Amino acid sequence: MTKEEAKLKVNALVMKLSSLDEHKIKVLNEAATKQGYIQPLFESIGWDFTNTDEVSPEDNTSNGRVDYAFKLHGVSQFYVEAKSLKEDVNDPKYIKQAISYAYNKGVTWAILTNFHSLRVFNAQKTEPFLSLDYKSFDINFEKLWLLSRDSLATGLLNQEAVDWGALPTPIPVEKRLFAQMRIWREQLFNQIFRYNEKLGLKPEQVDDFIQKLFNRLIFIRTAEDRGIEEKGLLALLHQWKPAGSKGDLLDALRLLFKEYDGYYDSELFDQKLHHVLDNSEIFIENEVIENILVGLYDIPGSMANYNFNDIDADVLGAVYEQYLGHVAEVMKQRAKEAQIKMELGVGVPSYSLNAKKERRKEHGIYYTPKFITDYIVRETIGRYLLENAGLPDKLHNIKILDPACGSGSFLIRAYDELLKYYARELKKPVDKLDQSERLPILTNSIFGVDLDKQAIEITRLNLLLRSLAHREPLPFLGNNIKQGNSLVSGTDAELEQCFGADWQNQHPFDWQDEFSGVMAKGGFDVVIGNPPYIRQEQLSVFKPLWQKSFECYDGAADIYVYFFERGLQLLKEGGYLAYISPNKYFRSGYGKRLREYLSAKTTIEQIIDFGDAPVFDAVTYPSIIVLRKILSDKNKTRIFTWNPNEPIEKFSAVVSSSGSTISQKELTANGWHLESSGNLNLLEKLSKAGKPLGEYVGDKFYRGVTTGFNEAFVVDRAVRDRLIMEDPTSSELFKPLLRGRDIKRWTCNFGEQYLLFIPWHFPLHNDSNIIGASELAEKAFQQNYPAIYNYLLTFKTKLAARNKDETGIRYEWYALQRCAATYWQEFAKPKIILGRFMNKATFAFDKNGYFHNDALYMITGANEYVVGVLNSSVSWWFLSQICTDLQNGYLHLEKIFFKYQFLLIRIREKLGIW
Length: 914
Fold this sequence. Notes:
There is one protein chain. This protein is an alpha+beta fold. Helix content is 41%, strand content 15%. The protein is built from 37 helices and 28 strands. The N and C termini lie far apart (67 Å).
């Protein structure tokens, strides 16, 4: 339908209403208004009401039903609250109703209309963005068209709102709620340390106090907004204030917690556990508690209220993942400092919470977007349920595991999938499933493990919230969701040998013991998740144990590699495993054993490579792989490489309609290439057309110099000339240095940078007797190169503080840290120089004996003809197939590809270079 056709249809509706007399308008109820006017209005501008994936009627809220949710690719774009013609859409209660639902669902736009008037609200504002009267639909049709399907699909509505200042940078509900929780957490830390010093609470106890408080309050607010409980927190405040705000508000809150313990009998409120939160000796100012309780209802600067029933589980998961990524920093010797300041009358110290992504990085925590969890659950649990239809024993006893569950986003989505299945089986809507029907599914089928204690509590909370339907006892989830290190297990002796006497601090996890019932029956039916991403440099303490425990072990492997093998160890024969993880193992050297393992032991159902698409809030090069623990010689693997030009929000729609297949046999240990059969045939043909580069150059492939402190060891010409002028012998230690920016296609552009080449073993005037004798060596160095010694002396503090643990070598403070000491003579030879990272073929030939930094590699034993081959378009295509993809079209040219895999295209024999 064209815009002009749409306009004619809208005008016909306007004429229809204009023909009604006042009496007919008054008796027209809401249903008739929707059917006769509002639905046809939106149909006229392109929305398909016969497709519930596009227009979802009567979407549930805790306060009833919003009339319509309008969606693109399954994602809600705006909500419409419809009223009868006689209702006043300027009534504040109707406005609040409309925008509260949109805000809590994280949707920007809310529309309130009775057709006679149409109001469009940004859910974070109280003033309407658009106000249209039906009589002005014709002259203001361009504004009405902003609500059309075409306008939403092209982003026209949002762009118009930005241009008019009606759409600021949106603050999703999870970020707004998280910002408040962070402030509250900081206030609580200060309060506890300020007033409860005598209790001697440790920081982790304080953190437990705050975590448990928030968990309980969110549970209570959810129960309230589902209509299961009265507004108990508000009632508590309303009773406390008229009494003159006297008494301890925290004590009153503890009484409410005891009531909930009696109702739900859950460890969340269990008084018998004597949790630190239930310690009546802990004091917190009433104002702080009051602000928290009020803040759980009112959204700052908005007419909307938080509605915890409308806040999706993945939103709460996002809030808590951010919560886990923050740490409390408490001042050292706080008790002593507090006492001193109190005695001086200048107050007590304040404690702040620093937002640190470092902790998230250290623990490899990346919150998984909902479209990813949806897809993985559908492709594993959904397929398992479909394949086993008609087999009640299998369906009713399915066991699902996330071995690194975090806040439980995968397990929540898995639980939802099971609830939908059982609802269909019972022929009732999901929201009509009784608590007695929900809970057995949870306790029988959902399992998770995580190293972080707080993450475990959050997962349990989220699953309890998913089950909550009535005021009835809730189950203990300690047998389902457990704390532990999924990759650490062994006998006491083995663990002590690896980790020492305090080996229990590693939280080893014995799968056969912890989940004995599941493992006795063969293991789990489905394993899903987003394993942590932690680089091998941080894993040294675990390597001796993992080398014995995993077939896929490689000293350079990231931690997620071992989660693949662990997941398959725990998986029942025929079961499904699906992870989202970095794609580095497709082609990296450390991924070779994993590739062999997966190809030999599983059917690889599908692989999705996202490249550098923004799936997470960091560049992690993610991929999804779906495996089945069953062998198939004839398996065809579905492959898909994400097009960076596609919006990631369209993932589900694009993947379901795209992709290709290859034979699993083509996924070899030498590297996985997600290409069409034609490309793979060409790749194989080129591979057979020449000699491996490693054979041709004799394995003469080297990295550049790592100084450990460039500020001291890399100087410009002016500094070099000055030091040589002070002492001519200084010239012996200066080497011309190339940087990544100096390498061009074919040639090197020397940038007048020089390296002070002082390796730790440097034979000072060939007197080998002083090597290793630190004081004598330094004295000799000072005598032989006084100008350079005095120059480096200005950096001594920083040079001496460099980390020496990485290589195990004892460096003198004035020496390079890692300096290519075993092959430094190679720099003087003719060589090919290339960058570690390239976005086009940029190979240069050097005859001048330049040194270079560690952003570059060099290949000696080759000549200019080889540079010509490497700079060819065919060569670059070959490299793009076998090297690891990085951001913005760059490739990571690792040594292994030159040593083993990269095959030079055969040059005509008459050139005589072979």
